[in-house]
Every structure is written in structure tokens, then in C-alpha cells.
Amino acid sequence: MATVRLWTDDDVAQDPAVKAVFDDIRRVRKSDFINNFWRALANDAATLKRTWESLKAIMGGEGALDPLTRELIYIAVSAANGCSYCIHSHTAAAKQKGMTEAQHMHLLAIVGMASETNNLVTAMQVPVDPEFLVGA
Amino acid sequence: MATVRLWTDDDVAQDPAVKAVFDDIRRVRKSDFINNFWRALANDAATLKRTWESLKAIMGGEGALDPLTRELIYIAVSAANGCSYCIHSHTAAAKQKGMTEAQHMHLLAIVGMASETNNLVTAMQVPVDPEFLVGA
Amino acid sequence: MATVRLWTDDDVAQDPAVKAVFDDIRRVRKSDFINNFWRALANDAATLKRTWESLKAIMGGEGALDPLTRELIYIAVSAANGCSYCIHSHTAAAKQKGMTEAQHMHLLAIVGMASETNNLVTAMQVPVDPEFLVGA
Amino acid sequence: MATVRLWTDDDVAQDPAVKAVFDDIRRVRKSDFINNFWRALANDAATLKRTWESLKAIMGGEGALDPLTRELIYIAVSAANGCSYCIHSHTAAAKQKGMTEAQHMHLLAIVGMASETNNLVTAMQVPVDPEFLVGA
Amino acid sequence: MATVRLWTDDDVAQDPAVKAVFDDIRRVRKSDFINNFWRALANDAATLKRTWESLKAIMGGEGALDPLTRELIYIAVSAANGCSYCIHSHTAAAKQKGMTEAQHMHLLAIVGMASETNNLVTAMQVPVDPEFLVGA
Amino acid sequence: MATVRLWTDDDVAQDPAVKAVFDDIRRVRKSDFINNFWRALANDAATLKRTWESLKAIMGGEGALDPLTRELIYIAVSAANGCSYCIHSHTAAAKQKGMTEAQHMHLLAIVGMASETNNLVTAMQVPVDPEFLVGA
User: Taking every annotated instance into account, which residue ranges of this chain make up the domain Carboxymuconolactone decarboxylase-like (chains A, B, C, D, E, F) (predicted)?
Assistant: First the structure.
């Protein structure tokens, strides 16, 4: 259960600043469905707007990475950070953007492998090779 | 400074099991350079071999994701796990596989954004929408 | 479901060392309610006593930070560490100590922002400015 | 060493979008000093501007929490996330905003205590008490 | 709910590569029960086989550490990484290998204590003593 | 560089409460060497005393786990939490308590393996098997 109130559409209708963001989410996503993350953030109209604008720019706008790759990275970070909600929502988003089951399983294998070597390296305190520092 | 010994090429020459893995790394990577991670893992020939075989399969073999995308995911996980060495080594690997500066900066923006929303969601304990559970 | 037994008041009544701590919790908090954390720790009377004494000193005793600020910091750490139980219990405690909804939402915005910049900094491996090292 | 280039003031002078943000940082902070975080983010003018605008609003603007409390929370999250750079920069910021040594040490005690109970709770998988779910 | 399909024994029967691993798990563990982790990994026969072979070697084979100590370490890492499933499954495995309640509670005390000092050290950015670097 | 002052023996000599703890550390450890962690904690005599008393009881006193096993668990948690200082200091302590190189490498293999499966499980959101919940 959330530690903050999840705003219903009726709640949203009472607050123009929140409503403007919800309207934009529906417009951009071409869907009436608004997931709980935004209904929780609605308790703070400024953070709601800021977060949506950032997400729209980074995940939805023009960019050097294609939309599916962006979602794969989002899932990877969410898994490493242990955010159950985010894993669910971004796995759903990735599937919607065309992630195949084979891509999903390859992503998971990399996430597991990276976590293993991350912890091995940390536990052994391996010093960075000078070769990796050139030209950064 | 590492908590384990970093094997020199002379050390490696004394141990056939370790040497076989080092030879394979050099063959696959078409380079004489062996980075410190493997020189640290050399203290345990079984883990060295297992880790190299896994990495070769997941990062280098056939797969549903292209080589650059794999490295981007690896960097993302390493950043979320706070592994300085791994960030350096896989950023170098990604550049070698063609990562542009624009792609790098886009990756970083996603890593930052995901960590922000991961923590917002966790701090608010947002329940997973039933819509995200369909068909998993 | 817990991996250890949650002690009921009947269980506690059988063990004087555990009972002494539970009595003190009830006395200090002026409430009969004992939450599950302590019922789980009751399996180890020494850790139970040590943890309660530490918590009482750090969160409840005299100190340089006021009681509400302490709870805000506790929530922030619990969110960053991904402890669902702790987020719930300390959000409840913070509300009891007067946390307003506006303060709660401001706290969440900082937690999200800090996690974003933490990960950006880590992913870019930004070196500490000498200016930050002066006089530490 | 950073995995991205740290922009000098000469670099900044060549890029109006980056320069506008640096000018604003100097104006708001009433100081010529710009720390490395911004010099690293300068590689991506959009993320630079977005991050600065967010930080300015959350850490510097009007809000329900006072400026010092905000910095204490920022340090706590940065410690839990293991961001060395951020711990240094925000400890410096907190001192500038009046953090006493006693407040600093109290903060550290809470950060340590919270991490201990976070991990105890997680290791025991303690279920959330229904009492903590009321009225959220 | 999982983000991937959990394979039933009927599903497994259709796929010889997956079936071979499941058969080996049953043979080694001398039990018909296969837990959900393997049923999830079954979506990727290569990762399934690789993970099982690694686990069999590290947790079940000959080695410098006894089987119970291995499980205690596994629980400790799983707690620090916040993996609820892994805490449950490895606590069950440790009990099966003879972990007493007193050992379990001692383990938990260490996990809590280590997390506390880990975060204190990180928050204070304590430099490593030269004495700890000798002879590594 | 630390964010707090590291107390020299001359500083300690001025403060009886701190001196009493330092004297006890030297007495218990039968060594004049005091590592930086305690010199940093000296800034807060209450936290110094509390932390030392806890560590002495958990790591040094009677208990269900032998001294070396305790250190192995401490290293594992410190690696998962990414505490470089703690990995160094507890690897040194473990060696002093008889950890062989083979035990060290086995420990590292488990730490890596656990982190891999922890993240795989989390990324797949595998539900806990009812079998693991029996009798907890």
C-alpha cells in the first residue's frame, strides 16, 4: 500500500495543474490509462510536472538511442536498484515497443552477468587499468 | 590496491589452466592486452574459466541484442551497482564498439532518470497496476 | 512472511530478557502497540536489547537534530536502501511527529533528485573537486 | 578520472546553451566557482539545463523544508547510494548552510542506524504491520 | 507476479535442453521439487544451463568452505542486495543444511552490524589505512 | 579524504570518553594499532562507544558462529554494499584469523554468484515458492 494518496480521476479534475499533466500524458501516450506512479506523484504538482517533462524528453523525444534500447536500459537500472514497480512497468513498455522474448532473456542474462562481475571486482578491489583512462 | 594478487604474465606462464584462459582471451579479443580483472580472477582458475566462458557467450556470441546495446546495458548496471572499475572498462569497450558521444550522454540521462523514478516509486511504495501483470 | 518467528505477547511473557525490552518500548512510546520488527528481533535477546538501546539514544534522546528531522533522514535512507517495511514504519512515525504532506512531498523530491545525481556522477566517474576537500 | 570530458571555461564559452546555464549557476550561487559535476554534464546541454533547473527548484527554491534539512537528506541518500563525490559536495554545502559538527555526527549516527535496521528487517523479511497501512 | 513465464513440468517436457537441466537438478538434489527460479530461467535454456552448472560447482561441489558456511554467505549477500526471493530460498537451504536458530540470529546480527559500519565509513569517507594494503 | 577529522593519539589524550574506548580497543586487540574508522568515529564519543561495544559483542564475543565465519560474512556484506574501506579492513582481519587463499577465492565466487542470481530473480520478479514459507 502506498505511503501517499493515489489520486482518482475525480481528484485530478479538481486541480488544474495536475489535470494539465494528466491530459498531456493521455495525449502523448494516445491512451486513457494513467498508471499509479503518476497518481502518486499528483500529490506534488511541481514534481509531477517536472518528472513528466523529463521522462517525455529522455524516453520519448528525439535522441541518439532508439526507443526500445532506452527501455532495455531502464529495465536494467530498475533491476539493479530493486524497484519492483519499475521493472513491471518498463517491461510492459518494452514489450509494447517490440521487445521479443529472446531480447528480454538476453537482457536478463546481461543484467545477471554484470551484477556478478561488478561484485567480484568490488570484492577484489581491482584497480582500474591505465589503458581505460586514456582519452576520457 | 587489490585484496588479491594481480597475476603477471610470468605468473600465468606457470599455470596451464590459467594460461589456457588467457590465451583464449587474447585470441578472441585479437589483442595482447589483458586487463586487471582477469589478472585478479587468475587466483582461482575455476572461477576464471567459468567467468570468461559466460562473458564470451553473453557479450560476444550470437544473440538477440547487438554488441553495442549489450555494452550500454552493462554500463547501466555497473553504474547502478556503483562499480567504478566496471564503468571504466565497459565504457572503453562501448567506445570501441562504436558508441558515439551522443549515445553515451543519452545513456547517462536514462541511468539518472531511472534512478530518480526508482527511488520515488520506492519511497512512495506505489502498488503495481494490474494492467502491468497481464500476460506476463 | 518472515524468515524468523514473530513473538506474540504470550511468547514474550516466558522470557524475562525479552520482556524487559518490550516493557521499556511500551513505557518510552507510551503505547501498548509493539510492531513486528521487535517481535522478529525477540528471537535474539541480545540483539533486541542492543538495537532498542541504540534506537532510543539516536532517535529519541537528546541530540543536535530535532525529532522530525531525524525521521526524515531515516525515511530517506530506508528508501535508498529499498526497505519497504522501514519506509512504512518511519513514514508513520514522521506523521506522528508532525510531518505535513508538503514536507513529505518535498522529502520525496529530494530523495529522487539525489538518486538521479548520485547515479549521474557515478556513471561519469566525476573526480572530487579539491575545493571540497579543504578543511575536512 | 571521468569517463566524459570536463569542460573548461574556454570550452563553455564556445557553447551558448551551456554558457547560459553556467552563468545562471554563478548568478544564483553568487560565486565564480563551478564544480566538476556541471563541467561533466556540460557534454549534454539538455541534461545540464534540466538537472540544474530541477536542483535549483528542489534545493534552492521555496519549500516545506528548510535549506539545511534538505542538505542533510541529500547527504543521507548519497551515503546510502555510495556516491563519494556527492557526499563530499553536499557535506561542503551543508557546512556552508550552517551544519554544526554535532549535527553532522548525529546525521551520521542516523544513517548508520537506519542502514542496520534496514538490513535486519530485510534479512528477516518482516511483514508490514497493518497499523502502518492505515490512512496512507 | 513474474515478468516471464514460469514453466510447468508439461512445458519442460517439450524442450529437451531444459528437461536435461531439470533432470539434473532433481538428481543432484535428490528431490522432485523444482523451485520457481529455475522455472523462470527455463525461458532461456542457455542461461538456465550455465546458471545451474555454476551454482552446482560453487555451492555444491568440493571447496574450501563447508556447505553451511556457503549458504550463510549467500543469505548475507541476498539481504544486502534486497532480494526477497533469494533470502527465502537460501534461508530454507541453510536450515536444511543444519543452520540452528542461534546461528541464524548471529548471522543476522552480523549482517546488520556490517551494514551499519559500511554506511558510517562511506558517509565519513574514511581513507584506507596503509596497514591494510600490505601484502595484498 | 574524510569528511570528518581523523583523531590523532594526541587528540584522543584530551578526551577521557574517547580515550577509554581507544584503550579498550588496544586491550582487546592486543595491539597498539588503531585504524582510521575509530579515529573518524572519535568525533562522536557516544557513537564511538556504542559501535565498539556492538562490534566487540557481535564479532569478538561468544557466539554460534566461529570468528572466521563471522569475518567472511562481514566481507560479503561489505562487498555487496560497495564499501571499499570495509572490504580492505575485514579482508585483513579474516587473513589474521586464518583465512586461506582458497577460502578467500571461494568466498568471492559465492559473492559473485549470489549477486548474479539476486539480480536475475529481481529482474524476473520470481514469486516466492510456498514451500519456502513453511514453518518460518
Answer: 50-126
Residue E3 maps to a domain? yes
Chain E residue with minimum CA distance to D117:
E112
Query: Which residue type occupies C1?
Result: M
Interface predicted TM-score (ipTM) of this complex, two decimals? 0.96
Do B7 and B47 sit in the same domain of this protein?
A: yes
Best of B85, B120, B121 to mutate (most C CBs within 10 Å, chain C)? B120
Give per-10-residue mean pLDDT for chain F (136 aa): 95 98 98 98 98 97 96 98 97 97 98 98 96 72
How close B67 comes to chain A (CA, Å)? Answer: 11
Flag whether E58 is in a domain. Answer: yes
In-domain check, residue B17? yes
CATH number at residue D117: 1.20.1290.10
Whether F56 and F79 share a structural domain: no
Give the residue from chain F lying closest to E100, CA to CA.
F64
Distances in Å between the Cα of A29 and the Cα atoms of A20, D111, E11, E62, E65 are 14, 40, 36, 55, 54
Query: What chain F residue is nearest to C3 in terms of C-alpha separation?
Result: F136
Put simply, whether F104 touches B (Cβ < 8 Å) is: yes
Calpha distance B104→A75 (Å, rounded): 17
Is A105's CB within 8 Å of E51's CB? no
- What does the pLDDT look like over B18-41, one tens digit per residue? 999 999 999 999 999 999 999 999
Given A45, A63, A81, the domain boundary residue is A63
| CB-based contact, D98 to chain F, within 8 Å | no
Say how many domains are in chain E.
2
Whether C101 and A43 lie within 8 Å, measured CB to CB: yes
Domain that holds residue A42: 7-63
For F29-52, b where at least 16 C-beta lie within 10 A, e where not — what string? eeeeebbbbbbbbbbbbbbbbbbb
